[in-house]
Amino acid sequence: MLGIDSAQHRLARAGAVAALSVVDLLICGTAVARGLVVLHDDADYELAGRHLPDVTARRVA
Questions:
Q1: How many CB atoms are closer than 10 A to CB 35?
Q2: C-alpha 36 chain-centroid distance
Q3: What's the distance, Cα to Cα, between the start and end of the chain in Å?
Q4: Which pLDDT does position 4 carry in this prediction?
Q5: Which residues are CB-contacts of 50 (< 8 A; sequence separation ≥ 6)?
Q6: Which pTM value belongs to this model?
Q7: How far apart are CA 14 and CA 58, in angstroms?
Q8: What does the DSSP 8-state code read for residue 40?
């Protein structure tokens, strides 16, 4: 399961910690815990998908 603390740590190491809000991280964590894909039209989730290997994100613009 994706923990918020570990996700923030991974993003900080990538220089992208300020990009994701706590709400974004909760959505990502819930999706990971349930085995779901985050469907979005938001660049923050693209970033999450790149830097958090457990997160699967798909843009639906």
A1: 7
A2: 12
A3: 28
A4: 58
A5: none
A6: 0.74
A7: 21
A8: E
